[in-house]
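User: Fold this; tokens only.

Assistant: Input:
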Amino acid sequence: MKSIFKIERLLLLAVIFLQVVTPVQAQTVQDSTRQVKLDEVMVTAAKVEVPINQTAKFVTVITKDQIAAAPVQSIQELLAYAANVDVIQRGGHGVQADVSIRGGTFDENAVLLNGINVSNAQTGHYSFDFPINLSDIERIEIIHGPAALIYGSSAFSGGINIITKKEVSERLYAKLEGGMHQMGGVELRGTSKVGITTNSMSFGYSSSGGYIANSDYDIYNALWQTRFHLKKDSKLDLQLGYNNKHYGANTFYSAKYPNQYERISNYLGSLKGEFGSALKVIPILFWDRHYDQFDLIKNTDTGRNYHRNDTYGGNLIFLYQSVLGTTSLGGELRREDIMSSLLGKPLSEPHGKYKMYDSRTNTSVTLEHTVNWNRFVVSAGVLLNHNTLLSGEYMFFPSVSVTYKTDDHFSISSSWSKSTRMPTFTDLYYTTETHNGNEGLKPERSESVDLAFKYNTSRVRAYLTGFLQWGRDMIDWVKDDPSETKWSSWNLSTLNTQGLEMGVDFSMGQFLPLLGNSSRLALDYTRMHSKHDAKNLISIYALNYLRDKFTVRFTHPIWKGLSAGWYFRYQKRMGTYERYVDLKKVGDEPYPAFSTLDLNLNYTCKDLLFSLNLNNLYNTHYFDLGNVPQAGFWLSGSVSYTLR
């Protein structure tokens, strides 16, 4: 432990030193391949892409170059290094993780694939079960704070939009990887341009024997994408995907049962168009089907249940640009249903292995207007939402944001918004040996406000954001007494959160040319505090928030084609967990703080890339969720080939 504390102190001293001695100049950002003006970076923090400097929302963008430099095997592991994103991993390498933003729970943020909302209505545990390899991704955008006006009512505490590559810049990509714990994998991706279409097909497979008993996994991904390039910059995007996972779920949902197991498959398809110029019309059709077989005890009928969850519908967005600004009008019709052996209401006749069923329809209309005047960008809008879960009740959720640019480098932004979230089917119906669902749950509601300062030059990018969120009827799984054997879903009357997000990103090559032009040092810190009226209730999720999160990312060249990426993370979670030893509860304990250090080494030789990942370098014994241990030191390597 002494060595860990020494490392943390050295890193903190480095932060203070750099912040004191760093001079500032105004240029453009220089990366290894091209110059990009910061103000021209486009994000989908609206119904369509807008320059990042025109949105008042705090948006984190993870680029494909940053993904390539990170020592990770999955999107979930990558998000663990994003500012104020809480990733509670049960199984590593994309097996399962609960991802939340700004102290919310994993059910309170929207997850999108190319602007299509793929959030799972059964449970947020499955929201990242989609067919994406890291090599498919162009960038990831994370919106911090409620984003109902942008992504719909499921974006209660934020949204994560994963955007895949569409252009034919890499005709062929192939990757082989292997490592400790019988880890292995392969990725293949091909692209082509035929007539008015650009096409891509990708496939991925990864597996491991597991780092502890019953932590093995097999994961398959397949994704097809076609873009039709039509006249006058109009386009039509088709995507079809398939994801399949089998994995040991050691103590995932209860420490009493270490031999839990899951088998999951997911199918998705969407069609999205963009037509016109001054008046843009954006129609969207989507469908997502998720299957799950859960065994409380692997390969037995004990506690076995089956689920089939379907989400489908359509969006229609109109966007009009004039001298008065930009006006958007959008509507969504979204149907969510589930057939299950456990969740829902009894079917009059069983449908095969499914005995239960429930469904709901969500209808929403959004209206927003944005004015860009002089150095001000002002946006105001409202979401009108109706869900058949609440018969006859229509809810309005307004949002207002303002950005003021004092000059080309510094801006001040503020936003205010309201949001809601419907209970998942698991919240409503999951009643088992360890849980009791609650059909009488109310929707969650919140109101939030934030104030952000941003500073961008070629040498330094910095931000500071303060936020307040007032939550009502927050849904969580709780107990009245530690001796109770079951968790029950419940509405907490209030849960108020306040926090600070801050970070700085240095282009180190401009301070120390010896490090190389592509060297970067990024530091992010989040501090949060929550107040609630839960009295003496014991909570699994909502009250066990991540109070402190500090990350350091340092990437630099070493020699010719060799480069390194160092990734440090420190976390302190509030709340307690029920500690189990030999399948018996021995008491309630606070979550301990921990830190990890990962290293990625890349060597480029023509069209080949050799990578070595050294994860958890000093072998920290830690867990994100009580009683679910994460892997210690894990060595893995890969070789990839790119034909351009």
